[in-house]
Amino acid sequence: MIPGLRVGSACVRLGCGLLLLALAGGGTAQDFGDTPYVQTPQNVVDTMLKLARVSASDYVIDLGSGDGRMVITAATRYGARGFGVDLDRWLVKLSNANAAKAGVADRAVFYERDLHDTDISRATVLTLYLLPEVNLMIRPRLLATLQPGTRVVSHDYDMGKWPPDYQTEIEAPGKTVGAVKTSKIFYWVVPAHAAGRWRWSVEDGGKHSAFELGVEQNFQKLSGGLMMEGHRAEVQSATLQGDRIEVKAKAGAGADETRYEFSGRIVNHAIEGEARISRAGKTRRQPWKAARVELWDPAHYALRNVPPCQEMGLPCGR
């Protein structure tokens, strides 16, 4: 649901249509960051939770929880726990009543609280229906606070320069705003901090070969260069999903070509996983451990000081 930040209660009393018209058409800088309450259709809720692969082990937090259907559905259908926050006191009261009626008041709780003051660190799944500028306002906190691997799902609006891992558009016949009754859904997995210089060695052909990998990172997108025994190897792909990293590379050519696949989990300044070395049609597997010897800032850190209005190409200031 889109919550009430400052205009939420007015939206309930006066009708969201007029406020949305002001925001979309004649809004001023004073409207920036305001989010009216608009109910998320149940089929969109269902799709968002399915996309996030919610299970009984998850803790779901919904920022701008409206009538509570997101967390209540997660609790009734999947056995998850969680809470929602909204500034509208009437909606919070309604949500807790709905949770009690559904028999999940012990697993789905709602608070009258500003989303900006809400501790989200416990979330394994975070759901949103906020306006674009609010998504950008909270994006740095999501990346800094949520654990790598946390799934974030947003209704209708993206995260600006943070590209989604997946997005789709579905029919939304119950949608109360917009001429076209469809909804966009955006999905991200919070990435670990992978940027830096990593070193390790692997046993290859009876000897240990030293590797050094320089990783440049922009959100979940990775690039970099790999050196093996002082010689450059070709990095074919480098991927990051949550705290899981995989690097594929090759060295040599023809009969001497060797392919390397390194995959593992990042924990602080170490990676532990598996190395696969393929040569002449044969593949060997062995444990892989890498250590970060230099810590670099990901490129997206530079966006922390960019105002949302600037990233959106809108005039800033009042």
Low-confidence stretches: 3-32
Give the % helix.
Answer: 10-25%
CATH arch. level architecture of the largest domain: 3-Layer(aba) Sandwich
The structural domain count equals 2
CATH topology of the largest domain: Rossmann fold
Global geometry: elongated
| Major β-sheet annotation | 8 strands, antiparallel, barrel
End-to-end distance = 27 Å
**Overall pLDDT:** 88
The CATH superfamily of the largest domain is identified as Vaccinia Virus protein VP39
Order of helices and strands: HHHEHEHEEHEEEEEEEEEEEH
Walkthrough of the structure:
It is a single chain. 22% of the residues lie in helices and 38% in strands. It has 318 residues and is an alpha+beta fold. The chain folds into 2 domains: 8-190, Rossmann fold; 196-299, Lipocalin (Beta Barrel), CATH 2.40.128. The strands form 2 sheets. The chain has an 8-stranded antiparallel barrel with strand order 8-9-10-11-12-13-14-15. The model is unreliable at 3-32 (pLDDT under 50).
Task: Give a quick precis of the structure.
The protein has 318 residues and is α+β, with helices and mostly antiparallel strands. 22% of the residues lie in helices and 38% in strands.
State the main characteristics.
318 residues; alpha+beta; Rossmann fold; Lipocalin; 2 domains; 8-stranded antiparallel beta barrel; 7-stranded mixed beta sheet; 15 strands; elongated
